[in-house]
Amino acid sequence: MPLLVLLLPAVAAGVALGPGAPAHATGPAHTAGPAHAIANGEDAVPGRYGFAVKLTMTGIPTQNGGRRNSSCTGALIAPRWVITAGHCFKTAKGTHVSRTVARLTTVTAGRTDLTTKAGSVAKVIAVRQSPSTDVSLAKLDKPITDIAPAQLSRKAPKIGTIVRLAGYGRTVDDDPSSVATHLQTGQFKVASLTRGYIGMTGQAPRRNTSACSQDSGGPYFTQRGDTAVLVSVVSTGPSCPHKDVDQSGRIDPIVGWITGIVGKPAPATKAPTTPAAKPSSAATGAPSAGNGRTLLSGRQGAEDDPGVRTVLAAFVIVGFGAVLALVLGTRHRRRGLQRSGVRRHRR
Q1: Is 98 part of a structural domain of the chain?
Q2: Which end of the chain is more exposed for a tag (fewer CB within 10 A), N or C?
C-alpha cells in the first residue's frame, strides 16, 4: 500500500490525501499499509541530529481541485541540498516529479524543538528524483552553513546492523494531532536488503518502535564519532506502531548520482593546532600579506622597491659595457703585437 505522508479526516470519506507511495517498479513488492512517523520513539536530545530537517508543504493540489498541507522529514547532506523520500514530491495522481508541487515548501533545520526559533529555515526551489529508488533531492534557496551535513554511506550495511532514525512525523498513526513538535528518534536493526531498499525493524526504546505518517524521507543513519552516516531514508511500511519490517530507500547504490548533483563532500579536516609564536611584521620589518601586494615567493625585501631595481639595472649595464670594452681592447692589442713580430709564449 502506498506510503501516505499525511492522512486527514477526509480519509473517512474515502479520500486519500497523503503524498503517496513510491511509484517506481523497482520498489519492494509487499501489501503493507502506510509507513509513518516514529511511534514509541523518544525525544532527541536538544542540539543533537541537527542535520535532520522538516519539510513543510503548504498548498498541495488535490484530485478534487482543492489544496492541502503536509510535511515530510529529510536530512541535510550539503549546504544547499536535502535528501528525502521521492514520493514527497508527486502530483495529485501519484506521479513522482522533479519539481515542487506545493505552493510553498520550506525546510527547517537545526530545530530539535519546533516551538522555538532555533536553527535555519530555507525554501525548496528545485527537486531531483532518483531513477532507481524512492529518494529525492531538494535544493534550497540559500545555504545552511552552521549545521554539519550527514555523510553518505558508500557500502551496504550488514544484516543485523543497528541504525538510528530521526523524524518529525506523527507518534500515533490514526491521530493527525499527534504530529511531533519535538524531533523523535529510535533505534532499528537492518533486517533485509534488496537492490534499492533496506528493511528495518524496531529495536529501542521498544520492539514496536516504528516509522509513522510524515516521517517519510526520515534518515536512518549510523554514527562515526560525531559524524552521522546516512544509510537510507523512510519509504513504506505497515501502519504504526508495529513489529514488522519498514522499507527504506538505500543510499549506497546511488551515491554517484547524488554527488553528481550536489557535488562531492569536503574532505574531513583535523582540528587546527596552535602554531608556535612568530615575530610580528612590526618587529621584523617584514611587510604583512594584507598590504595589498602579492607575495609570490613568501619573501619581500628592498630588492622589490622600484628605485632599487633601477639602480641594479644601471650597474648591470655599466658592468656589461666594461667587459665589452676590455674584450675589444685585448683583440686590438693582439693585432698590434702580431704586426710588430712579438709572439706570446704559452704558459
Answers
A1: yes
A2: C
Domain contains 245: yes
Set of cell numbers at residue 320: 656589461
Q: Which helix (H) or strand (E) holds 326?
A: helix 306-339
Tell me the one-letter amino acid at 266.
A
Residue 192 to residue 203: CA distance in whole angstroms: 15
Q: Which domain holds residue 196?
A: 9-262
108 located within any domain: yes
Phi-psi region of 274 (alpha: psi -120 to 50; beta: other; left: phi over 0): beta
Same domain, 234 and 312: no
Picking from 231, 252, 248, the residue whose alpha carbon sits closest to that of residue 27 is 248
pTM: 0.68
Spatial contact of 179 and 168, defined as CB atoms under 8 Å apart: yes
Within 8 A by CB and 6+ apart from 131, the residues are 257
Residue 166 Cα to chain centre, angstroms: 17
Residues 127 and 230 in one domain: yes
Residue pLDDT, tens place only, 238-257: 988 999 999 999 999 999 99
Last-in-domain residue among 204, 230, 262 = 262
DSSP 147-167: SPPPEEP-SPPPTT-EEEEEE
**How many domains does the structure of the chain reveal?**
2
Cis peptide before 241 (omega within 30 of 0): yes
Helix (H, G, I), strand (E, B) or coil at 63: coil
Q: Give the contacts of 67 (CB within 8 A, at least 6 positions apart).
A: 59, 60, 61, 103
How far is 246 from 275, CA to CA, in rounded Å? 51
Q: pLDDT (tens digit, 9 = 90+) per residue, 174-208?
A: 778 888 899 999 999 999 999 999 999 999 999 99
Q: Give pLDDT < 50 ranges for the chain.
A: 1-18, 20-37, 268-304, 308, 311, 332-347
CATH of the domain at 176: 2.40.10.120
Is residue 149 included in any domain, yes or no?
Answer: yes
pLDDT reported for residue 316: 54
Residues 166 and 187: their CA atoms lie apart, in Å, by 9
What distance in Å separates the CA atoms of residue 139 and residue 301, rounded to the nearest whole number? 50
